[in-house]
Amino acid sequence: MLDVHIDGHATRISPEAPVAVMRPASERRAAGGAANVAANLAALGGCVRLVGIVGADAEAHMVCDLLAGLGVVDTSGLVTDPSRPTITKTRVASGHHQFVRIDREDNRPLDTAPREALIAAVQAAARWAQVMVISDYGKGVCADAVLHAAIAAARAAGCPVLVDPKRRDVAVYAGADLITPNRRELTEATGLPCDTDAEAERAAAAMIAITNAAVLLTRSELGMSYFAPGTPPIHLPTAAREVFDVSGAGDTVVATLALGIAAGLPMAEAMRLANETAGIVVGKIGTAVVTRAELQAALDRAAHPRRMPPPGVVALADAIRQREAWRRQGLVVGFTNGCFDLLHPGHISLLEQAAAACDRLIVALNSDASVHRLKGPSRPLQTEAARARVIGALRPVDLVLLFEQDTPLAVIEALQPDVLVKGADYTIDTVVGADVVQAAGGRVILATLEEGQSTTRLVQRMAGEPTG
Predict the structure, then answer these.
(1) For this structure, is 7 an active site residue?
(2) Residue 375 and residue 269: Cα distance in Å, rounded?
């Protein structure tokens, strides 16, 4: 599938009907459906062969292009069916409020030729893979014949099978090793509630009796639970800190589980990793992936909750690579810069406003030599290493780099951020790099200042000097 996210501003109510009039501000595309599973696998370091149905259209090429930028994803297993479009889901939102979703799809059962081609592609992939993930979205692709052939091919190759189900008739998944329903899917398949641990265990037992497969139940704010014959249940609380969007969270879970199983991890450990990645991805807007670096950072925080090392200062070349990776994921990248010598509420407000305008925030710090030239021989008060450590530890900041020049123009030209943020003591015309960002279609934002807050004033106050 192709996921399209259009974000804008609701300016007024239409005179034609009681609906909002949207002024689009940004549009991004992401690999959706099974392609999102593949994208998450690749982002976590897996080698993926994607098998599925696409249309003979531009959207199919967009999906392949998006995957090509994420890692090792072989799309040769995609079968083109000219009689149907590539499924495209377009979400229109303002901030965190989604107004409408438009689905372009054809859910008819596959004709004989594309079905047979799909089965052949699945059988070839099973001989190559260490684990098979079947993402059934109920769109007519995972017909009985396709599922039976896929599971049989995997079993013949000794390849474990994970199924993310949509059907109520789960008997068709018999032969799989693990099924990963959410609460609604488990209830619809078994007719049993699954809100409490005891209810979940009874409902999972009913699914196990039908499929003879283990069940990993994703339970939203309750975390996840694993049930298998002859073993005690495993319950993990959610790892999510903030939930902005649950789009594709199940895809991230099954992708992480698949990698864990392929690596030979015990189920409890694979679940822990999947729980962490789910907690990360629901904190993002729209369909998104979790990278190995993000997962490692989350695991480090969990292992050392009182010791949260900030991201290190990165070289410009590494920052450019990270910015390109974020761009391929469809993320809006923001940029701000400054000396950030003695941190005060004005700095925090600026960073919070900058982070609110983007998905990822890069902060460029003036080096010690640069601050010395700009502020005088007594500055900076803190070394660049100390300033970077403090800034990097702040929640709004995703990446920190240093620049030696008096202005960040060269850095802005190299990074090409989508959003450039400076304080409202500037005008658009006086913001360094504003013309570069605007020429590339980006935005320049002037953040509201905290009155009376500045490092210079703090220094004067500490020295007993009048602050004016």
Answers:
(1) no
(2) 51
CATH number for 134: 3.40.1190.20
The tens digit of pLDDT for each residue in 393-449 reads 898 999 999 999 999 999 999 999 999 999 988 999 999 999 999 998 999 999 988
For residue 155, say whether it is annotated as part of any ligand binding site.
no
Band (310; pLDDT cuts 50, 70, 90)? very low
For 139-169, write each residue's pLDDT tens digit.
Answer: 999 999 999 999 999 999 999 999 999 999 9
Q: Which of 3, 7, 251, 368 is an active site residue?
A: 251
Residue 183, marked binder: yes
Q: Which residue range(s) make up the domain with 127?
A: 2-159+238-303
- Co-location of 275 and 396 in the same domain: no
Q: How far apart are CA 74 and CA 256, in angstroms?
A: 18
**234 falls in which pLDDT band (50, 70, 90)?**
very high
> 411 and 372 in one domain?
yes
Query: b/e map of 456-466 (b: 16 or more CB within 10 Å)?
Result: ebbbeeeeeee
The answer to whether 136 and 165 have CB atoms below 8 angstroms apart is yes
Give the number of other Cβ atoms within 10 Å of residue 232's Cβ.
9
Query: Do the annotations mark residue 294 as ligand-binding?
Result: no
Q: How many domains does the chain have?
A: 2
For 68-83, write each residue's pLDDT tens digit.
877 789 999 999 999 9
Closest alpha carbon to 258 in 149, 76, 135: 135
| Residue 104 burial (C-beta neighbours within 10 Å; 0-12, 13-18, 19+) | middle
Q: Could you give the CA distance from residue 34 to residue 251 in angstroms, rounded to a whole number?
A: 8
The reply, when asked if residue 127 is annotated as ligand binding, is no
